[in-house]
Amino acid sequence: MKTELILLSRVAYRGREITAPRLRGLLALLAGELRAGCSTARLVEGLWRDELPANPGNALRILVSRTRSQLGADVVVSTPTGYRLALGEEQVDSSVVVRCAEAGARYARAGDHAAALASAEEGLAFWDAAPVIDVVPGDPVAELRAERAPLYDSLVRSRALALGRVGRRAEAVAPLTEVFAGAPRDEEVLAELLRAEAATAGPSAALARYDAYRRELRDDLGTDPGAGLKGVHQELLQAEAPAVRYGVPHDPNPLLGRDGDLVAVGGLLRSSRLVSIVGPGGLGKTRLAYAVSRRAEQRVVHFVSLAGVRADEDVAVEVASVLGRGDAPPGGAGAYGGGADVPASIVAALGASPALLVLDNCEQVVRGAAELVRELVARSEGLRVLVTSRSPLGLSSEAVYQLPQLSADIAIELFGQRARAARPGVELPPDAVAELCRHLDGLPLAVELAAARVRVLSVPEIARRLGDRFALLRGGARDAPERHRTLHAVVEWSWNLLEEDARAALRALSVFPGGFTESAAEHLLGDGVDALYLLEQLVDQSLLKAGDTAAGIRFRMLETVREFSAARRAAAGEEEAVTDRFLGWARDFGLENHDVLFGGEPLRHWPRLRAEQDNLVLALRYALAREDHAATAAAGAVLAGIWLTDSTSFHRVFALAADTAAPLSHYRPDARHTEVTRALCVACVTAPFVGYGPLQARHLVTLRRLPPAQPDTLLRALAVVLCALADMRPPGYEALEELCASDAPLLAGVAEAVASYLWEHEGEHERALASARRLLAAVDAVPNPSLKLLGHSRCSELCGDAGLGEEAYRHLLAALDALGAPERPVAPRRACAGASCWPVCNAVSRTRPRSGSGRWSGAGRRSRPRPSRPIWPPGPRSRWPGG
């Protein structure tokens, strides 16, 4: 929430400067006691001191009244004993800085120095300069600023420390020097200053400062620096020795797109003893670990590859051997103490100085790696461990870094770089390259393997062959590990690490092209299967990605993994069984959600339904192929609702109507599937009148054949009106009048909406406005966002035409309110009304003969010709009513 009251650098409310001294003082006093407020006596004492007015209570009331008149009636509120500000702590700068200082200290204790830096900078932004401590007697603003002045010093110190701890040491030198000058015994600040100076001016400068401090401390206090500062001194002494990198090769080519990842992993290594870079195969974890190793702050780095280790008990022996402790006996790592103490020998090889141990490719020996790392971290205080794996180690000391896929731009750059290296002068059409890279999951290995194929194929030919990507993406560089020579080998490496139940789950879940929720996984995997446990395994192996969405946690597979798993599903003969369960999920999802976008909270449901679109499209294809009419109706009803309420996908409703018209024309749904069938038919009959597309008459026939239902939802009410279209005939429109008189509010509301357009088209403006007002009465009886939006829009439009400007403006504001918060998705907001009633009036207009003079006029409104086509909607690119 935006800070509204500023007191620390100036006095202003919502950007408006406040100059009246008493008004400034009142706000400062109330801001100082923001939660409880101030008593009348405290306010009188703070505002008038020794110059009390004749009637202090009345003078205070006048001041409060003047404050309310200038700043707003709700700014200052009364309490039983006095007054308080009606503002939250995040709206007053003097309270925000308190929160920032507390949060910064909390983040620093937790080791989250980036967050501590952000909190400190947020708090310092409220001061233009260092606050003046001198207090002007009788000035509440000056007193409040003096009271907050220590927080400024605290935030300056917090920022200086955080700059050094996040690695921005060149920037940290000046603020740390300034803070230390003001607090020359603050050894925590001095420690960071020494590290910053060592990184910028060199260890010698930092050692000189340390020696000067130590002498001064002995001369003044007769004591030595604390243990922490002595530890930094030892670091500086060791920093004089040359950096050593064991087993870290130089890059054969530039590492693209990983600058942010390098900074992030480096930051984690400063705050955590163990950091694991986790991600699927071919993502570049090893390359990133090489780069981190070369930039590491530790003077000694050991890089150990565990790709060739297959048994957990061999991990420690392999590490000891690589570190030059090959005297550890084979088999001695599984039971430490059964001969040689292998972890102790590794610690001895690492030495006493701070060191970084990198263990690469741990996924096939996770248990052995975890046991060894736990021992090493416990025995060596200065050791940091960096792990690369497709699954985390699961230790309490572990900070997991999920390595992201390459961005589209970086993938395109990498493809171009490797393609030109493979065949100089190769033609790289930008659009074709971008489309190709979009299908490669952002995996560097996949991009490089695809680029290597330009030796014999053009880019469009490579894209066309991606349907069998495992046959295409093979034959990598000879200096790549064997498991990275083909994309198939990369995925198979992870597949072989799974238990059989996890493999079965992956085969089944690969049927979802658009990702899935936990509940969908439970439905597909069936009863008796612990879906959450299996999902955790697959996420740990980087075969699934779990992400927060507006609709909750959602799981996704890389397309590479999905294709691999689908092939294994076909080979296992599980296609029919999995498809049956998938269609069962689609039927249940449709039964539960077919009408929620037309109910009371469409915007709340929109993200969740939109996320399932790709899954429902596939389910619809399966259902049509199998002639599963129940699944066709269920999946189609939800898709129709999504597409009707999305202007960018509206045209897809016509294809849906064409594909489902014939299959459903002879369908006799049971009671359980009647409503989803009704919903699909209503949407398919409605769409042509909203978007001027072809009408599939079979859906109307199917709709009229369904058992009648109470019009207690918008879709059911719309179904009743659609079924009565044939009976709405001039001159009296008795069938329409009967529906308008219905006791069912939604049915009457839909009918009145139709009537309002019809009477306007006939030139009966007052009658049209009366129908629109009755529509609003129906909305009041049964609230519905779609009808509310339509009702106020119609009233605003008709009142504007009639010259009733004030009423038109009120309805316009109400229509905008019905759209929802401005940050909500635009498409569902606009279409809340779009799928309700406009199409029906067009249907009536299209099926009746024209009559009348072609013009209409009346007092207080302009004359205009009757259009040659239905008045509403004006077309797919036009504004919506009330807009």
Automatic annotation (TrEMBL):
Keywords: Two-component regulatory system
SUPFAM superfamilies reported in the protein's UniProt record: P-loop containing nucleoside triphosphate hydrolases, TPR-like
Residues in Bacterial transcriptional activator domain copies: 92-237
Record SMART domains: BTAD (SM01043)
Gene Ontology terms: biological process: phosphorelay signal transduction system
Region (Disordered): 846-883
Compositional bias of kind Low complexity: 850-860
Pfam families: BTAD, HTH_77
CDD domains found in the cross-reference section: BTAD
Keyword Glycoprotein: no
Gene3D superfamilies linked to this entry: P-loop containing nucleotide triphosphate hydrolases, Tetratricopeptide repeat domain, Winged helix-like DNA-binding domain superfamily/Winged helix DNA-binding domain
One GO molecular-function entry: ADP binding
Disulfide bond found in the keyword field: no
Official protein name in the record: LuxR family transcriptional regulator
Species per Swiss-Prot/TrEMBL record: Streptomyces viridochromogenes (strain DSM 40736 / JCM 4977 / BCRC 1201 / Tue 494)
